[in-house]
Design goal:
- The protein has about 350 residues and is mainly β.
- The chain has no helices and 26 strands.
- The strands form four sheets. Strands 2, 4, 5, 6, 7, 8, 9, 10, 11, 12, 13, 14 and 15 form a 13-stranded antiparallel β-sheet that branches. A nine-stranded antiparallel β-sheet has the order 19-18-17-16-26-25-24-23-20, with no helix packed on it.
- The chain is globular and about 55 Å long.
- The two termini are about 30 Å apart.
């Protein structure tokens, strides 16, 4: 692989709607504007996905405008009992919310009948609010979550596709310390109790068929903040990959990684132990799954097959000076997603 390229400040797209450059950074350095696009609006994909949790419970929320269809979704995870509940709303065209053009400002709000999700960004904090009556049977799910960054860096990548004017601009913000509460039916869950979150902020014009792999972890161990973003599978990555480790304020940039998912009868066996590693001995992890949040949808010419697997990581990574840092059963997730969209 060629040398990875660090992005420069400036517009994401030129006057022809082509990427000015591709590469990576640790902040949202490129200026994204929908008005600069030269592709049909229905090909644009925009989403904000948050996951927040600890080793006992968690919550994931999604607001996504995928051009000709939109999605609002919430999942509650009960890791102790290996259970999860998901409730979603989906529709065609006429998206009932407007995604922001930057991750550092702009609120996003969704309301359809009693189903409500809102994202707010203010004073470097992120506030998520959810209220869904009859989330499971007659039980209501409500949450108010405040997320505060614990480190100054994030993973930012600009990736082109082979098809002209197609690209993905992505920021993953790890190690967002959570506070607040989830109330699900008669039970309440304290988000001040060692809970951390991650934001997946994505904007881009995607090719029709693709498969990606993504893994994320955020937490504190031995009085150090540890997080990572690992992934691959889409676009032209000769200028950069999205593989980045965060250790307190230090950033470790990796090249390629491998997700080794076990097989059974020639099919991926998602609930067996995975291996995630690179070929330069800079990271080597075992991933022991708890829950496979599997969803499969198909409608007309679009389809999605998602396996987002939550579990415990152990292993090690190396800092830039070569020192080894051990990971001892920290919770996170790894996923494989195939789309036709």
């Amino acid at each position: 692989m060629s040398k990875q390229t660090i992005l420069k400040k400036g517009p994401l797209l030129d006057e022809n709607g082509d990427l000015v450059e591709s590469g990576y950074h640790t902040s949202l350095i490129k200026d994204y504007q929908r008005s600069a696009l030269k592709t049909p609006r229905y090909r644009l994909k925009e989403w904000d996905y948050y996951y927040v949790g600890n080793d006992r419970y968690g919550i994931a929320t999604t607001l996504a405008d995928n051009g000709y269809m939109w999605l609002a979704s919430v999942t509650f995870f009960d890791f102790a009992n290996k259970g999860e509940v998901t409730k979603s709303k989906m529709g065609w065209f006429r998206t009932p919310f407007i995604m922001s053009e930057s991750s550092v400002n702009g609120d996003v709000k969704f309301k359809k009948k009693d189903f409500r999700i809102s994202y707010q960004v203010a004073n470097q904090k992120r506030i998520i609010k959810v209220n869904i009556p009859r989330f499971a049977n007659t039980d209501t799910l409500s949450a108010t979550i405040e997320l505060t960054p614990q480190i100054n860096n994030s993973m930012v990548i600009v990736t082109p596709f082979i098809k002209p004017k197609h690209f993905y601009y992505n920021q993953k913000i790890n190690l967002l310390k959570a506070s607040g509460q989830i109330v699900f039916g008669p039970n309440s869950y304290d988000l001040n109790d060692n809970c951390y979150g991650v934001l997946d902020w994505g904007r881009g014009v995607w090719e029709y068929k693709n498969t990606w792999y993504w893994s994320s972890l955020s937490g504190k161990q031995d009085d150090h903040f540890i997080g990572f973003n690992l992934g691959y599978g889409f676009g032209v990555t000769d200028k950069a990959t999205e593989n980045m480790i965060f250790y307190d304020q230090e950033v470790v940039k990796l090249h390629d990684v491998v997700f080794d998912i076990p097989k059974k009868d020639k099919e991926d066996d998602y609930l067996k132990t995975w291996r995630i590693y690179d070929k330069k001995d800079r990271i080597a992890l075992e991933f022991t799954p708890i829950i496979d949040r599997h969803s499969k949808t198909s409608a007309l010419v679009i389809s999605s097959n998602q396996h987002q697997v939550f579990g415990f990581f152990k292993g090690y990574f190396r800092l830039e000076n070569g020192n080894k840092v051990n990971i001892k059963n920290m919770i996170g997730f790894a996923e494989k997603v195939s789309n036709r969209w």
